[in-house]
Structures are given as structure tokens and as C-alpha cells.
Amino acid sequence: MTKEELKQLFKEKIVPHQRTPYHFQRIENPQHEIQAYNPFCGDKYHIQISKDHQGYFQGMGCAISQASTSILLQRIEGLPGDDIAEYCHNFLQALADDSSLADEELAVLTALKHFDGRMDCITLPWKALRDYFKES
Amino acid sequence: MVVKESKVRLSSPAAIKQQFPIFSEFPELVYLDNAATTQRPQRVIDRVSNFHQQENASIRRGVYQLSARATQEFEVARSTVANFFQAPQDDCIAFTQGTTESVNIVARSIIGDRLTPGDNVVVSLMEHHANFIPWQMLCQANQAQLRVVPVDESGELNLEEFNAQIDSRTALVAIVHVSNTLGTINPIHEIVRMAHQKEVPVLVDAAQSAALYPLDLSELDCDFLVCSAHKMFGPFGVGVLYVHPRYHRQVQPYNYGGGIIRSVTVENTEFLPYPYLLEAGTPNVAGVIGLAEAIRFIESIDHESLVKQLHELTNVARRKLASIDGISLVGNPAISSSILSFGMAGMHPHDIASFLNEDHIAVRAGQHCTQPLLDHWGVPATVRASLSIYNTPPDIDQLIESIQGIKDFWV
């Protein structure tokens, strides 16, 4: 994939998530509350999981971390905590190993690591949820 | 054949650029992250390399020729740094690992012992974390108060407010000369004068100013000054701590170890005087010698003309950026250096920096280790373009063109 193609993918697949992120709201009485924070760049999201296993988030960050969070919350809908940890672990592993992914949006997320220095933007919410549910 | 060194002082950014091999290696590179680290000229690279190839030895403790020469070069470097800043004595200069360590030394090895409950330390809101957290921690540990002088909308300090924060219980004023986020050049002489009128010592963080606006310490008369080699065309891993002679006897060791002692018995240790008691262990000899070479480089160029051109170029960049719809500059200080912070409506600074990188333009995006300042501004991050003496008008044209392209693509 050329950088030009990657930029185009960015525009088509990532920017829409930045403009209209999934479940970008705060809910009452969540079952789980998780902070995803990168102190080096300031990206910070407050992620909530409701009692019926729906993910919501609020916060500020770059297009990549915001799209990554938006995509992640759609994928883990309905999953119990243990499965969320495993799902996040598997994605992070695929990202590290350069494995190909059938899920088109996840494949775009992994391709974005070819933008220099943006790995932490992609992984921010995935690591936060993996670590939270691994420990709980 | 003997080749005489040219006495003509380089005065054009394009000629300066040729002295820096990274720009031959990457001809397309537009390097605008000089506030993070400057590039290295060939002569600094050669000097460090020659030391490793032909002069390497540990200093002070060897009675052989190589060690004696390395020791001599190390002390020549101390003298070079002292002369560069017009320090009253060579032994006012201690070598550290960087600005951060230099500030921490002043906090823990000089001010720490003097701080009692109810005292205060005065800093500004525009301090880099390296000149903020050490004082915050020290104050917390000693039931002292950290007083933070605010910054106005243009990114400047109000000197009356500053003066009002300094009182008889102020143990130190710690203030940055040039803000690494806003580019503000603070009226450092007036601040030192204000503090000294109340007999309060002043630490000047000169990390961003040492290469472009080196302070004359014989005139400024501040008590402590800190800076880093790598922001003045020298190597990583070397910092400078200047301590005025009036405080030499109050400096305590920072790290305990070899090379800083007069005598050691099972019961007791007597230490060498400042600056030697701070240089425990084997120092970064090659780095220190590289710093001295970087200073010789700075002294060899037409500094005044280059800084003037740099200001003009920065002003052009500021004007052009401000004229792009949707771009907002963070701070607009009347007297500023070559640092610009900005944001673009609807686009996060990290995404802007990533797309600039695609056009070979290196900028910094983030909080620039000034989180309290950006919190005050209500922005989570900025894009920072910081220029140096090798940046040329085409560099800025490219930045502006690229920003415009990103905006068209994105917005």
C-alpha cells in the first residue's frame, strides 16, 4: 500500500469515526469505568461499559485514537469482560505480528502503524481495556 | 599543504545548513523540531568521533598520556563553557546529564537544605515540567508553598504580579528564559533584579535560549543557570549547571561515588569543593568535549546576522500561519524566539504532525512537557514548529503549503 492509498483510507475509514464516533456519550450507572490515557501526547478517554455490555466513551484525542476507540467499542458489544480482554489481546497481537485481518476496519487500523510514531494512538483503548479486564 | 581555516563568518542559513550532514543525508528534510533537539554540525560529529578514535581515556585518575590529555580537554571544555556565558570563574560550571538533572541538583543539593515549612518557591506557569516538578516535589516534602506566576493571553508574564509573589520567605525564583511552547522571551534581567532586591536567588532555565540568545552572566548576575548541549548543536547526554561563587560552599553532593572525594575513611568522607563534588563517577567526556566544539561552532558563525534572519523568517511563518483560515496560534508574545505553537480547527495536532511528516516536515505535536500551561489555555495539545539558524525561506514555504494541503484534504 502506498502512502497516498493509506491517506485515502484514512480519509474514508478513520475520519468518519472521528466526526461521528460510536456511542460518544456518558451514561448513568455503568458497570465498568476505564481511563485510557497517554500522558506523552495528552489523549484521554473515559470509557464506560454498561450492565448490558454496551461500550460508551468521552474524551479528547487524535483521529486515530478516537477512531480506534470507536471501532473497538462496536466490536466488543455484548461480550463479557474475559472475552473483551481476549479480543483486545488478539488484536494487539495481530498488530504486532503484522497478521492480516478479515475485518476491514481493523485491517485499516493495523495499516495505520505505517504512519511513523502512531502505534500508541492505535493501541491506546485496546491496551486500557485489556489491562482492566485482565486484572478484574 | 596546510589549509588555513576560513576566517569568513558564515552568515546565510543556506551556508549553515551545509555544515549539517543530516541535510545532505535527507535533502528533503524540513527540520522544525529544534526546541526538542538541534542537529549536529560536521565539526561536532568529527570532534566526538576523533575523541573516540584517538583520545579515549578516563579522566583525572590516569597517570598516562592519554588520560592526562583527556583530562586537559575536559577542563578546557569547562573553560569554553564559562567563557561563552561570561561566568566569573571556570569552576562555576559543573557538567551534568542535561537541563533536567541540573535543575534537580539545584533543588536537592542546594535549595532543599534551606527550605523550611512556610517558605515558598516561585515559578511561572510556562515552565517546562523539568523546572516545575522538582520544585513542586520539594515544596510538598517541606511543607513549603509553590507559587505559580500566571501567563496572560498573549503568553507573557505580568512583572507586577511576579514581583508580588516574591517575599521574605521565598527560597528561590526558578524561571525559564525562553518558553519551549510559546516562544516567549522573558525579561530575565528584570526578573533577576526584582528577586535580588528582596535577596532571593534566581535559577534561569536557559535550555531554549543558550544557542540563540546566550546570556552574559557577568551582567545578568543570576545565581544558577542550566542548559543542555543537545539543544545547542552538541551531543545528547550533557548538561551545564552554572552556580555563582556565592553559593559554591552550599552545594552538597548529588550522587555519591568516586572522583568527588578529598578523603574516605571507614567512619567519614570529605568531599571536594564545587563543581567537582557533583561529578561523581566517570563523566561523559566525549559529550563534554563535543559541547565545547559546538560552542566553538556557535562562536565561529555570524551569530547576530543569523539570529536576525531567523527572527524575520519566524515572523513570516507566524504571519502566514495566522492568515490560514482555521489556524489559531497559541500565544502571541511581543518578544519571542523562533518557536510557534498552533492548532487547526477540527484536526488534532497529532494528525497534523503525521501528515506533515508525509511531506518530510518534522514538527512536534503534544503538550511539550508544559501540561499546566496548556490546561490553562484549554487546549489538550498543540503543533509546535521551532526554527533554527539553518532553516531557510523554502522550509517555511513548504510548511505553509503542506498545512494548506492538509486543510484542503481534511476539512
Strand and helix layout:
The complex is a heterodimer of chains A (136) and B (411).
Chain A: H1 3-19, E1 32-37, E2 44-49, E3 55-60, H2 63-75, H3 81-97, H4 104-111, H5 119-135
Chain B: H1 13-17, H2 22-25, E1 30-31, H3 42-55, H4 65-84, E2 93-96, H5 99-111, E3 120-124, H6 133-141, E4 145-149, H7 159-165, E5 170-176, H8 188-197, E6 202-205, H9 217-220, E7 224-228, E8 239-243, E9 261-264, E10 269-271, H10 285-300, H11 303-323, E11 327-329, E12 339-344, H12 349-358, E13 361-362, E14 364-366, H13 371-377, E15 382-386, H14 393-410
Parallel strand pairs in B: 1-13, 3-4, 3-5, 5-6, 6-7
Antiparallel strand pairs in B: 2-8, 7-8, 9-10, 11-12, 12-15, 14-15
Helix pairs in contact in B: 3-10, 4-10, 11-14
Description of the structure:
The complex is a heterodimer of chains A (136) and B (411). With 136 residues, chain A is of the alpha+beta class. Chain A has a single domain (3-135), classed as Alpha-Beta Complex (Sufe protein. Chain: A). Chain A is 53% helix and 13% strand. Chain A has a three-stranded antiparallel β-sheet with strand order 1-2-3, with helices on one face. Chain A is globular, with a radius of gyration of 14 Å. Chain A starts with a helix and ends with a helix. With 411 residues, chain B is an alpha/beta fold. Chain B has two domains: 13-40 and 302-410, Aspartate Aminotransferase, domain 1 (Alpha-Beta Complex), CATH 3.90.1150; 48-299, Type I PLP-dependent aspartate aminotransferase-like (Major domain) (Aspartate Aminotransferase, domain 2, 3-Layer(aba) Sandwich), CATH 3.40.640.10. Chain B contains 14 helices and 15 strands. Chain B has helices spanning 13-17, 22-25, 42-55, 65-84, 99-111, 133-141, 159-165, 188-197, 217-220, 285-300, 303-323, 349-358, 371-377, 393-410; strands at residues 30-31, 93-96, 120-124, 145-149, 170-176, 202-205, 224-228, 239-243, 261-264, 269-271, 327-329, 339-344, 361-362, 364-366, 382-386. In chain B, strands 2-8-7-6-5-3-4 form a seven-stranded mixed β-sheet, with helices on both faces. A four-stranded antiparallel β-sheet of chain B has the order 11-12-15-14, with helices on one face. In chain B, helix 9 links the parallel strand 6 and strand 7. The longest helix of chain B has 21 residues, at 303-323. The model of chain B has no long low-confidence stretch (mean pLDDT 95). The interface between A and B is medium-sized, with 20 and 18 residues.
